[in-house]
# Entry
Amino acid sequence: MGKYYLGLDGGSTYLKAAFLKDGKIVNTVVLPTGIDNSATAKKIVAALCKKYEINRSDIGYIMATGYSRKILDVADDDISEITAHAYGVRLTAPKEYNPGMVVDIGGQDSKIIYLDGNYNVKNFTMNDKCAAGTGKFMEVIAQILETTIDQVGPLSLESTAPCDINSTCVVFAQSEVISLVARKSDRRDILAGMHLSMAKRIIKMIKKSEKGGDILMTGGGALNIGIHRAFEEEMMRDVYVAKYPQFNGAVGAALIASERGGA
Amino acid sequence: MSETIQSGHRRQELFIKKSTRVAASYLNRAKALSEMPEAAKPFFNVLEDTYVKLRELSEKESRKTIGTLCVMVPSELIYAAGAVPVRLCSGSYTAYSIGDDTIPRDACPLVKAVMGFGEIKALPVFEQCSLLVAPVTCDCKKKLAGVIDSVKNTVPLHIPPLKKEDADTEVFLRELYRLIPVLEGATGREITAGSLAQGINIVGEAQYEMSEFLWYRRHDPALLHGTQVMAIMNAYSYMPADAWARQMHRLNREMKSRLEQGKFVSRKNQPRILVTGSPIAFPNLKIPLLIEEMGGILAADETCMGERGLYDPVSVIDPGFDGMMRALASRYTKPCTCPVFVDNSQRVYRIRQMIREHKIQGIIYHVLRGCLVYDYEYQIMEEEMGKLNVPIIRVESDYNEEDVEQLRIRIEAFIELIKLKEYADLQGWKNLNKNKRK
# Structure
């Protein structure tokens, strides 16, 4: 019987887990990170063991990544998010994807990873101390507009005249949105404007020298169809979305775990 | 009035408490890296004396000290005038927050730290200087030279932004001649051909030991940690060159015996990293420490607080007074790879050379917030490194500890990237994070 391998991605908002067996993703779990990441991770391991009727020792290797990677003590080792995401793409990218750029939109940061033809990391850029291009920003705006994060994308697609949102800071953008609301702008237009502004912000991080290959979106942000479309519009190129985008880091960690444990 | 003085004292007291604590913690982290050479201790002691014990520069002959900034002020002239140069470029986070009140927000943290020390008057080596020679280099240093005069007697030294033509060197030569009476006035001693030759010899000794040391530093596996080298190089700022050279001689002997015994601080497959970019001034050792704490080896640096200041010796062709002055003017501009010069293609050349000599596998390009001149050169460096297939990342940082986690993830991912590139087989992969978890 092949062993199980687990990847844990302790993000700023959610803790994601990907369970791997024979090189295939058999399950994914997501829980709010909560105040005690380590306990949340243990809970996930226990739940998976129960579900598959296995012991902890049947899990060949556990690899942690994400912000809380160093404190998840159920893990055997940890790896940076950059390497984990680059690895995850090997399992989650659509077949037609020709490796190039990976755009990850997380809860607290966004990053761009440049891959060579063999999915190896060539370089990467990350945003600095700013939430305006991240999932947190989407959440804040959704709240102001009295909608939920899963509705943000579909609603924005109905927009006919996206609003301009210029602020580069999540707090200022928030007040900009509030004043748009006060001026009775359509919330669909506000959402479409927000997606365009986020896409522009992230595109600014892209290096001029690294434009080869296709673009793949990962991270919870990629679940939002609005940001996906805004990205295509701003890049003027097709943009692919990973399978299980939210779990891409966890999948990568699990894949590395299987290489590590299997060798 | 008395109330302001009182609060000024109180501020100074609090400043000292905080700044000494920060400096001590960085010293301890640097010392804690494995196998610190016995002969490196005196350098650490100098940094401790300067930043933690708050002592003046230790001097038996009670020579005067003269402050300098950057790497373009010829120390030889200061020794020739019977004084000792002290380089006041600082990495103090605490002084930075003092200077932040007077220096505009977008200026670099290094000038804020220097200004901060000027204002708080709590660093004895700074207070001890009777004069500050401030080269007019980047915009931040230029304006600093103007404003710091209010707290420390300062003489600006014009650095020609062009350096290729003889006419440019002539401009700097005139500047150096203009500096002579200023230095003589400060020390009351005349600069003669004899004393200048002696000054050149004093610095020459240090350069000789440095070139010897670089030979050991190139060794793979590494004979000592690069973070400790940065501390040793920073200690040069606060030591007379002859004292530094004597200690360096001891260190070189220890390196020699380490080499003979095969005593190394790095394992196989530890990425050899070069740091270049904005100055890494003590106590701001956060980038070198992160590199080595995350499993890399800082195998070389192309920075002005590191080996740049001591790499090239002064070559005197005509031993007359003017001949020596010309040799100084040439030495302190022509080979200098500071990006304040309009054409600085030498820097790329030098880094290419270092990649070969030090067997460098990746480059971390350090940009201090507001340091435009270094940021300008990142683009060309990235292109050049692309041609050589050497990975490079730009990391921006400031003088505080709030960005440590952001820097850590970047540096950690960069080290993983190099390991995967160089040792992509499973065996190398298995060693990736060895020893990271207990």
